[in-house]
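>> Question from a student workshop board

For tomorrow's exercise we were told to take the sequence and the ligand below, predict the bound structure, and bring the output to class. My setup keeps failing. Could a helper post the expected result so I can at least see what it should look like? The ligand is 6-O-phosphono-beta-D-glucopyranose.
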Amino acid sequence: MVALAPNPLRIGLTQERVPAPLLFVLFGASGDLAARKLIPAIYRQFQARRLPAQFALVGVARREWTHEIYREKMHAAVEEFAPNDVGRPGVWGDFASRLFYSPLNIQERESYLRLNELLDRLDREQNIRGNRVFYLSVSPKLFPSALEQLADTGMIADVSKNRIVIEKPFGRDLPSAQELNQIVSAVCDEKQVFRIDHYLGKETVQNMMVFRFANAIFEPLWNRNYIDHVQITVAETVGVEERAGYYDSSGALRDMLQNHLMQIYALAAMEPPVSLGGDGVRNEKVKVVQATRVANPRNIAACAVRGQYSSGWMSGRQIPGYLEEPDVNPESATPTFVAVKLMCDNWRWQGVPFYLRTGKRLPKKVSEIAIFFRQVPLLLFESAAQQLSPNVLTMRIQPDEGISLRFEAKMPGPDILTRSVDMDFQYGTAFGTKTADAYDRLLLDSMLGDQTLFMRSDEVEAAWRVVTPLLTDWEDPDASHRVSQYEAGTWGPAAAEELLTKEGRRWRRL
Ligand code: BG6
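>> Workshop helper replied:
Here is what the output should look like for this input. Compare the format with yours to find the bug.
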C-alpha cells in the first residue's frame, strides 16, 4: 500500500490545544448570549481543564455590579441554561474566583481606564504577560465606540497578544460591513480579529470538511458532472421570542442567510484547501463565495421568496403571527422565511443550482445539506415508486447529527423492482458522545489564536455582496410587493415550493 504523504502545512485545526495564560474580557457580560452560551461554554472548558492555569475573566457591562454579584449571576445562569454542567460546588467556587466585573459606559474613556487598571492588576498578580481577548457581545451599533476606545487606551496595541472577537451581525448590508471593516482595520491588524459565526463551531459543520477531504470516494463526484443540485435548509420552530428589537430590523436574510447558511454553502462548495491553517480554508471559502450570485439578479421574484409567519398551530398550541409578537411593528414587512436559488460561476459548479432556505416557526428544528446526484442515464429497472429517485447524500447538522446516503436497492421478491433505502451514520451511536456546543470550540479557538473558523473581512463582504440584490429589491420603498404570509407550523409560503417545482425539483421532505 502506498503511504499517505503528510501535508507539511498540517496545522490549524490539528494543533496542540492549550491556550497561553490569558485574561478574557467579556463586553455585554449582563446580556442574554453571555448567560445562555458564553459563560456555560467557558465553564465547560474550565472543567475539562482546557483553560490555562493562569486565567481570569472580566465581565464588562453598564450595570453597577460588584465582582460578587457578577459571580452569583453567572452561577444562576449556568444553573438555568446548562444545568447538566453545574458540577460540584468546589469546582464552581474555583471558577468563580477567576471571575471579575468592571462596570463600563461604552462611550466613556474613564470606564476603559478603570478597566485597564483592573486588567493590569490581574495580569501582574497572575503573571499573564499581556495576553488578552476582548469579546464584543454588544449591540452592533456600539462596536465602533468600543473598538475606538480600546484602541485609544492602548488595550489592543499588541498585535501578537491582544485579540478581539466580534459577534454577529457584522454590518447590515455591504456598505455598513465595509465601513465596520475600515474601523476595525484602522485600530488593529486582521490577525487580531475574530468575527464569529457560531455555525462554524458546530462539529457537524466542520465534519463537512473531513467528509469531503479525508475520504477519497466523494470528492471525484463533487462537481457539475455528477451533482444535479444542492439544498441547504436551516429550519427553526421558534419564533422571534423576545428579540423583536433586533430581529424586526434584521429578518431571516440578515439574521441567518447571509451568515450561517452562506458559511455552510461555502464549506460545501469550496475547493480543497492547501492546509487547515488560518488562511488555507478561508482563502478557499472566499473564492467560492466571490464566484456566487443569486440566480437572476435582475428578476429577484424568479429566484427568491420571502415570507412572514402568520398565526397557526404547533404541537397543539395556537401560535401568534409575527405581527402580533411583542415589540414587532404591526406594519412590519420583515421576512421570517427566505428561500433563494444561488449559482456558482466556476469550473466545478457551473449550472448547478444551490437552493437555500431558512425560516422561523417551521414544523421542525432541522438543519441539513442535501446533495442530489444526477439520475442514471438509462432506466433498466422499474421502481416501486414509479420513478427512480436520484441518489441523495444528506449531512444532518442538527439535531440527529449524522450523514445518510440514499440509493436504490432491489426489493425482495421474484421481480426486479427497486426502492430507495438509506445508509445512515449517526454521531451519537458511532462515537457514543454528544457533540459539543459550537461556542465551546469557538471560544477556545479565540483563546488559542486560531482564526480558521472565524470570518475574514473579505469573506463577510463577499457574503453581503451575494445578498445585496435581494436587499435592494425587497427594501425598495416603491416596491408594492409585500412579504407573503405562511401559517406557523408550515414549510413557508407556497412560492417556496414553486421555486423548485417550476424546475422539476422538490424540497426534501423533512
Ligand atoms: C442566531 C440567530 O445567530 O442563530 C437566531 O440570531 C437563531 O435567530 C440562531 O435562532 C439559531 O442557532 P442554532 O444554533 O440554534 O441553530
